[in-house]
Design goal:
The structure is a homotetramer.
Chain A lengths: L1 E7 L3 H16 L5 E8 L3 H11 L3 E3 L11 E4 L7 H9 L4 E3 L7 H14 L3 E3 L7 H11 L6 E9 L16 H4 L3 H17 L8 E9 L4 E3 L6 E3 L5 E8 L4 E7 L8 E8 L3 E5 L5 E5 L7 E4 L22 H16 L7 H20 L3 E2 L2
Parallel strand pairs in A: 1-2, 1-4, 2-3, 4-5, 5-6, 7-12
Antiparallel strand pairs in A: 7-13, 8-11, 8-17, 9-10, 11-12, 13-14, 14-15, 15-16
Helix pairs in contact in A: 1-8, 3-4, 4-9, 7-9
Chain lengths: ~375, ~375, ~375, ~375
């Protein structure tokens, strides 16, 4: 049986997932057979060109024609297009894979998670950083208790593409379309990754309350190809303090104004027995301090028995950012083929959204906010 | 003229300052002549041994005999001993140099700053990290506008000496004696360093409001040489979010539970034109991104024209932590000799204390607190 | 027109090149169309499985049937199989792409280069590290004179897979089949990369003479699945000193016994105006010191205008080792389609071989050897 | 009893040792009492100023008046002044501490070592890097067999102060006065450090043969304060390959032309069980790979039980370059007080010199040279 995939969105994320799908047969031969069946978008010409390049059989300009025709629906559009097509697909019994953040608003995210629950089909939120070998290896260590009781957690996602006040306006600067700025775009990854790594009850447990801070440094931006400017209605950066169930302290931060950092997502964890550090710009590495060690060990997570690595190349032959999408698609499509649950699903997408919404609420109210 | 110095405290800080005083003649020949005149403490035997080793002429077990007899009084005792002797010395017209944090409580700090103002003599708070060559070089760059408008500021001071729950109780774990824990001991350094680096009006300006979080992970600790335990009444760690006058965002953190970090005080600043990073465990280095650079430059701040370096060794011959005390004492004693103001004085000690107190208050109230 | 490719070798290198071929359409749409036509090997069953997985239309167990039937012949077999099929293909007018080192002996390499010259068709030696974006960016800087006059060059390739004396014997340990050990396998890359980077006349110029040192630490190794051992007849490690035409000094080294290093190929260059450093285990980065800089800048070579990067992902989204093969195949196949010369060709393969042979000769004679 | 020290040389090394002597009482209370008795030099005015600043009781312009009057003679002059005064002092039964390299020529070094043997008094060569805590800690690990059988050894000492062709001529550029250039000045440290670390019979054993390469990049340099130039008659840089008794391979290198490196002495060792790396510009750190580790651990060698550290500051409070002189002087003076042998003595100074001389000879002959 071949899974026919319909994909909404043909830019950055469309390319990343199409690439992932195309690489499965050679590297993950036990993945289900997949056909890139239909690519969905609005600009027919651009769409046709993209479909051709990305290996899709056909195109469609109306997603309503697609969501019940395909075996799986990938929703890779801008945030404000996440809810409606995803809910429609789920209602039609079609498994859905949706980019993060799950939705621009908590309400939409709840609606989507409800629809997923009702539908009872496989659903996924595309938190691809759970599928970095080094992160997965870190998770193993945490589950084995190698770090002991968790005391401190840090997550920071730094980019610099808006530090120039003349960088052009895009949908990512608009509250209607994006929901939030750095918070939703980058913070969603951080929140999910920390939930994944330390959220289990025998580690730090859930995030119980947060104190958030959002800031917009540049209030309006030029519209490309015109003399106009448009207002920036989302945050350029956020920070947050978190208290976990076990008392662990978290500090979170993201910015699009961090000069010198392109895609620098760092995670740091200190436990009673050890510590670890990870940076996405060196994603093949994990810095680890085990019990009895005197300093952090810089580990190249490229050995044969490291997560997913046996599918790729010999030790020391590093992989890149895009490989996380291959692993993610592999796991998602296997779940689809088996009718299994996929984690992170819409439930995890919603859980992250709740934290983000609480951070925003905290910022508005100027006080700590409990996370439901 | 020789300045006779009386020093209260003969342990860690007593040794650090005595060493600094002893090294001035060889390396800072234009420093005033100093006599290590009298060492003050309570345990006469230990005191005598220390005075001998640290090169003091005499000892005294009662500071009241000393504060008006010496030309300068160094208060290096535990925090709860900062206020009374310092105020007495100032009242006697004796210049005072006091270890940080200025006092265990804001009230004490205010009393001390008032006394300093009234006395009109040179006074100093021992924020020695202002005197790291790399930090001073960073300050030059900031003052020259090399980083542009300041957007983000981070300060983190990580240690791990309490992560073992059986690490013994000390005065540093007691609210009465220490005032606070990681917050006052480590956070005071961070707050002062950030005030120094970006606090000017044309940079980030003052810290306007904070949101703080304090945590005590281990509630009681064994008393050394007994079967008892005593309660830990201060924080083991704190975090804070800060908003500066210009809208810049700050995140602060310190911990005594950060496994793998011994004395790791890091500062990070992102501006519209550049960024910088500093770590105390590599204190000869500054990581700097200037306008037009593609990445951080790792600079060894040991060139002849770097701050204070011409007094020491040729380029690449690194200095250590203790050298910051030499620079600090040099500047303080020169100010004393000239009857000049020394910065950071008690005023700066108090300003840092205000931030720390606001962080505590914010933690208690669960909301942002404005800094007066 | 579609180029039909025949590939000899279906293991590590077969997979790396098949992957590269399969990725061209999506990321390098201006590459010629390629058909993975026939996969050549001896073990029919393994071959059939590989052809299926790697996307080949057919298989062949005799390369003589293939070399004149395809449009391009890829020779990815063990070193001792490089010469004969490559020469046969060239004689049939078929362009050839051959893995490095070009041959196990200098004589074979000369024969191959002669055949390439006679044939007048496109030919390539697979020195893929010339196609790392950071290396290509470094080359740009060198060509622009940013490093000034070259004084020092270092190249080191460290692996550790033979440090265990019980690691099994393979063809790579056999002089007949491999020619040499670390020298040919790893040193070939280093020699080529240094020739590429600084070999131009206005940089360091050619390598004029070498002093070499080869060492075998473990004399025999167990044969997998048997009680036998076989002798190791090649070097486990080599080092060399090089003098360049302009007087620059080079130090070269490679080892399969460097504990803790998996695939660590580092290049360092010091010139009169600047310096640079590169490590394959962090292949997205280049450390660069420009004139006037105070330290090395750590550059993430992932910007849109960096070599090849616009074909992939946005800044900061790092690529992996395998991407170097995509770039290499892209350039090679374009040259084939246009009937152009490809650099590095067999000529460059031979030039590297001459240096390697001189290092061996120097080791045997215990004296410096001039490179013809 | 107080040891009266006479010191020849009052510039860089004079200051470094005077500082070390002055710091002993406070930090190494069990060191013998030392009096900085007489400072020897030729320029009386400069000498008087230096003696005053460095804490010497008196001055002398003729060393012959000094060598038999003091309890210990420190020879810190330029290399060509090492032999005669040292031999005279030893002949008078005065213990001698001499800066490295022991002498400008092998003949002088032999004469000095003979004199030391005949005199039977304590003698030392000032290889201060043996006294870096991280190096001493590394030595402990090596002695405990933590690295297993030694396969590879690397030593590199990079500076950049001559890369500017207009940097002025000094005695260090003159063969008569210095003996050699980077080789003797920097290479002496490297050779000694490697002999210290792995020279024992159960580690790599002695250096058996070398292949050397010396280069002078700039043939003449301006004389400061004149229009003249003088020829550079020593090497600006050297490299060498070494074979150790156990078959281990060594690569050595030093340069005064390595742009971006100020005082970067790095040591790397790979053994069958582990590896280590050290850099003088981060001298508080050791990078260590132990058996079973997956990567290098970055260790801050500042714990209480690390070598010499208990004399200084708490963990994480880093020391500097100058501290190595304090440790060295402490050990040397204790040996003097006890009439004990000090290691490294003139014997070790001579052994290093033999290696350096063999490197020069190898360079001249263009072939490997056995080390006696």
């Amino acid at each position: 049986m071949t899974i026919e995939v319909g994909v909404l969105g043909y830019r950055f994320m469309g390319k990343a997932h199409a690439n992932a799908l195309s690489r499965l047969p050679m590297f993950f031969p036990d993945a289900p057979d997949v056909e890139r069946s239909v690519l969905v978008g609005r600009d027919e010409e651009a769409l046709r060109e993209a479909a051709d390049r990305l290996g899709f059989d056909s195109i469609a300009t109306d997603w309503t024609d697609v969501v019940d025709e395909v075996d799986v629906f990938y929703n890779l559009g801008p945030n404000h297009v996440h809810a409606e097509p995803s809910v429609a697909a789920l209602s039609a019994g079609t498994p859905v894979f949706c980019e993060k953040p799950l939705a621009p608003t908590l309400e939409d995210a709840e609606r989507m998670a409800d629809a997923a629950l009702d539908a009872g089909v496989t659903n996924g939120t595309a938190f691809n950083y759970r599928f970095v070998p080094a992160i997965r290896y870190a998770k193993r260590l945490l589950d084995d208790g190698e770090l002991g009781e968790i005391h401190h957690v840090r997550g920071r996602y730094l980019q610099d593409w808006l530090v120039d006040p003349d960088a052009p306006w895009s949908w990512r600067n608009d509250e209607e379309m994006a929901g939030s700025g750095a918070l939703g775009d980058l913070g969603a990854h951080t929140v999910d990754l920390l939930r994944y790594l330390v959220g289990d009850d025998d580690l730090a447990g859930g995030m119980e309350r947060v104190s958030g801070h959002l800031q917009t440094f540049v209030e309006e931006r030029p519209v490309e190809g015109s003399d106009e400017t448009r207002p920036v209605t989302v945050d350029d950066a956020y920070s947050a303090q978190v208290e976990f169930e076990n008392g662990a302290m978290g500090t979170l931060e993201a910015s699009r104004f961090a000069n010198g950092h392109k895609n620098d997502h760092t995670i740091e964890i200190h436990g009673s027995k050890g510590s670890l550090r990870f940076s996405l710009e060196r994603l093949n590495e994990l810095e680890l301090l085990r019990e009895g060690d005197r300093g952090y060990e810089t580990i190249l997570v490229t050995d044969e028995d490291d997560p997913y690595v046996d599918h790729w190349w010999p030790p020391g032959h590093v992989i890149g950012w895009e490989h996380t999408f291959v692993h993610e698609n592999y796991e998602f499509l296997r779940a689809v083929a088996e009718g299994d649950e996929f984690v992170p699903g819409f439930e995890e997408g919603l859980a992250a959204q709740r934290v983000l919404a609480s951070i925003e609420e905290s910022d508005e109210r100027g006080e700590w906010v409990a996370i439901e």
